[in-house]
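Run log, item B.
One chain of 347 residues. Sequence copied directly from the ordering sheet:
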Amino acid sequence: MLQEPKTAMIISHSIKCWLLESSDPSMCYRTYVELLGMAASEPEAVEARRAIPTSAAVQQILGRMHPEGYWEQRNPRTRAIIGDGVEYGSFATTHFCLSYLAHLGMNRQVGQVALAANRYLDLMQPDGDWYMHFSCLYGYNIQTFIMLGYRDDKRLQRSIKLLVDSARADGGYLCDMHETKTGKCKVKSCIRGSLKALTAFCALGPEYWDHPSCKRLVGYFLDREGIYSKKDLQRPVNKDVQKMIFPFHWRSGLVEVLYTLSRMGYGMDSRLERAWRLLNTKVDRTGRYILEWTPTQSSWKVGKRGHPNKWMTLYALLAMQAREESRGEYLEQYQPAVAGQLPTGRV
């Protein structure tokens, strides 16, 4: 049974039917539970969840896994085979595959997933890092392992501490490779690494959302109206942020920015209005959102570029749903802050 709608957002019958096609049980389950508010114990949700491990997408990914628990790929630049360590190539090595499985609804209860997840967690450095303090890597991994069920794992706790302790003066995040650059100007934070840090905080939940590091990071995005250059708010900060990108990875796509900020309660912030308007240009006449970029070498094929896409549609609708859920509280408690300031609390 579907629960009473939490929001006034209307999802058309045709879109619901499209997302609930039985050929994709991961999409069915997440649509039922996350978008339509069905209890996970309801028969339809249970049936969809049971079908996930044997689905085509999951089997495609697990079928490529090395028996020892990792995924290999040829480095597109060096042509060397990589993957048994923390090195990663073009969207098909271990930490990408674990993330894909998490988004598909898999978790540590599945033996192959647990094998790969534990092996990768054991590659972590003592301070919680995996490689050169790439925030785009450890932020991404934190979200993945929380989704897989490792929230309380002592190894992941080290990485969470690194996340909390690594915020820079401008509120964003960077990595060793760029931090050591020299020049006349101080090195700025990286929008891609900062977004992965933001998604990690989002996955950690409300107990972290009022932490000073998280609030400064939210301010980092709101001050640039989500996706624009802070120095020139008429210019997108890079090409990624204008595009509809899935699966989520180190690039910083439009939906990922809006979904994450909305989940954390900032979807109604007036500084995101232009980003929402841009999202409204990415939908076809039937209400299906277009996939503009997806990796060609990924082990998870989510669809064709330039075509309507279920995953893009699901996350766009989830982002808008989260924005609508905060509308009433926002109107009662929050007046938009002046440019450059952060709200006194979440909405």
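Observations after the first pass:
- Residues 124-223 form one domain.
- Strands lie at 73-74, 81-82, 290-291, 307-308.
Flagged for discussion on Thursday.
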